């Protein structure tokens, strides 16, 4: 496992998401209250892109059918999805966003 630069902090809107592709994975980066989180981008229900979802509290709401996932852990918190996402450790290095893969 190593930290890999995947984006700049300025790529990620406040209270919004940004999708990156690295090592054949699509990962959603979110910024909430100054913190940056990284979870899988693909909803476990039906393949929607979670980086296009709205953030409510510490959860992202799937834009397709409304399942919710915890930004911090990837845990599913509301149906119709039932499987958790992977969450990735994030490190900020200057303006670089690095995640552990
Ligand atoms: S694709 Fe996300 S809830 Fe259906």
Structure description:
This protein has 101 residues and is mainly β. The chain has a single domain (3-100), classed as 3-layer Sandwich (Rieske Iron-sulfur Protein), CATH 2.102.10. Helices cover 0% and strands 50% of the residues. It contains no helices and 11 strands. It has strands at residues 3-8, 16-22, 25-32, 35-40, 54-56, 59-61, 68-70, 76-78, 87-88, 90-93, 96-100. It has a 4-stranded antiparallel β-sheet with strand order 2-3-4-9, with no helix packed on it. It has a 4-stranded antiparallel β-sheet with strand order 5-6-7-8, with no helix packed on it. A 3-stranded antiparallel β-sheet has the order 1-11-10, with no helix packed on it. Strand 5 and strand 6 form a beta hairpin. It is globular, with a radius of gyration of 12 Å. The site of FE2/S2 (inorganic) cluster (FES) has 11 residues, from loops.
The average pLDDT score comes to 97
What fold name goes in the CATH topology slot? Rieske Iron-sulfur Protein
CATH architecture: 3-layer Sandwich
Largest sheet: 4 strands, antiparallel
- In total, the number of domains comes to 1
Shape: globular
Strand order of the largest sheet: 2-3-4-9
Look at the structure and name the CATH superfamily. Answer: Rieske [2Fe-2S] iron-sulphur domain
Summarize the structure.
By secondary structure, this protein is an all-beta fold.
